[in-house]
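User: Please fill in residues for this 391-position structure.
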């Protein structure tokens, strides 16, 4: 049976066997839980948000229609953007796209929704954008209810995720994840013990926990908090294992309760909103459905392998459909998750932490400039055209 060298709260080191690890929720667990689900920022966190690591002092046009404030106050987000782009003029379009939650920022509102594509039986995501007036009245009640239903249903994935680690009926999922990540029986049991404690915390405090904090990343963040006690090496392997479990859960998560993409599109069009397909590399079959959309995201920090090809696809599609009056726009998204920037830098996911609102390098990439010109695509053109559609 494995033993672990742990660091106590008093700073002492001692050995602890797997059998000796508490199966009961500890006082330390309680403190960790409330730290993880709090939404009020500390002075240090506020400073992190309002101090961007890089300043783009020559960029005047700023396009940002795919980013996630998470629980960061929007006034702090605005300060960060203004400090990142000190030369920013009126030529900008800044629309937050929280997952399944409509947010208003200035004159604009946006949301990224999970929905179901019956054509290829997969969950996909769409970005919806509006002038704020379109979603603030009672006319948007149905759309808001659809987003809320989706948010609540999507958050239930956390519980299936934890059950997949702790419940015997899902043993095959844990076994498969262990096989793929090289996790031995003791490591799986170590994870199981801690996830059961996390489940107990959630069950006890769910009514007091902000709904926006009930999400998959709570598992990852909970184990990151264990690094102080167990060290980086063990927790790194733990995170590798639980990440694989999460992917397996996502593959099996029921699609029955998601609205279809067409149901959402119809509602958005009825409200005068606009639609962009994000992450086309993950959801490429959706491009074949010829959906009624305004734009296709050809680049974001996790979808960049086929940027040049996707620009050509948009250009050819517009020519074939002769959509001179309302062409499909080439868009790019930073997919920035500001919650990642609140973490201690030691615990950040470097790839996610490096994303910045409005920073999309391919607009200036000389290797694809010709394609962008052929597609009549530029940051400034997209801003002007999209604003006109949203007005």
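Assistant: Residues filled in for all 391 positions:
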């Amino acid at each position: 049976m494995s033993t672990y060298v742990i660091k106590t709260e008093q700073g002492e080191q001692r050995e602890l066997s797997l059998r000796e690890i508490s199966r009961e929720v500890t006082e330390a667990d309680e403190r960790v839980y409330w730290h993880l689900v709090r939404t009020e920022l500390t002075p240090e966190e506020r400073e992190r948000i309002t101090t961007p690591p890089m300043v783009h002092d020559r960029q005047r046009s700023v396009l940002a229609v795919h980013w996630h404030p998470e629980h960061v106050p929007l006034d702090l987000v605005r300060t960060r953007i203004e400090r990142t782009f000190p030369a920013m003029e009126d030529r900008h379009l800044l629309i937050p796209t929280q997952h399944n939650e409509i947010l208003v920022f200035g004159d604009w509102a946006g949301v990224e929704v999970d929905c179901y594509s019956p054509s290829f039986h997969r969950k996909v995501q769409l970005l919806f954008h509006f002038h704020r007036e379109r979603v603030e009245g009672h006319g948007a009640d149905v759309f808001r209810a659809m987003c809320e239903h989706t948010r609540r249903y999507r958050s239930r994935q956390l519980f299936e995720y934890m059950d997949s680690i702790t419940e015997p009926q899902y043993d095959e999922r844990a076994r498969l994840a262990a096989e793929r990540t090289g996790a031995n029986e003791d490591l799986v049991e170590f994870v199981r013990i801690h996830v059961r404690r996390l489940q107990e915390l959630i069950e006890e405090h769910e009514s007091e926990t902000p709904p926006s904090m009930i999400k998959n990343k709570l598992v990852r963040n909970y184990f990151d908090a264990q690094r102080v006690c167990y060290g980086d090496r063990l927790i790194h392997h733990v995170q590798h294992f639980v990440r694989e479990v999460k992917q397996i859960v996502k593959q099996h998560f029921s699609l029955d309760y998601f609205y279809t993409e067409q149901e959402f599109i119809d509602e958005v069009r009825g409200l005068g909103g606009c639609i962009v397909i994000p992450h086309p590399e993950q959801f490429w079959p959706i491009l074949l459905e010829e959906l009624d959309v305004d734009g296709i995201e050809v680049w974001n920090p996790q979808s960049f392998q086929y940027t040049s090809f996707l620009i050509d696809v948009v250009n050819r599609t517009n020519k074939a459909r002769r959509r001179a009056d309302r062409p499909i726009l080439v868009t790019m998204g930073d997919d920035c998750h500001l919650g990642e920037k609140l973490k201690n830098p030691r615990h950040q996911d470097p790839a996610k932490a490096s994303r910045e609102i409005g920073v999309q390098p391919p607009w200036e990439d000389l290797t694809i400039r010709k394609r962008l010109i052929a597609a009549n695509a530029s940051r400034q053109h997209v801003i002007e055209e999209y604003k006109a559609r949203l007005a």
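For context: The CA atoms of residues 39 and 71 lie 6 Å apart.
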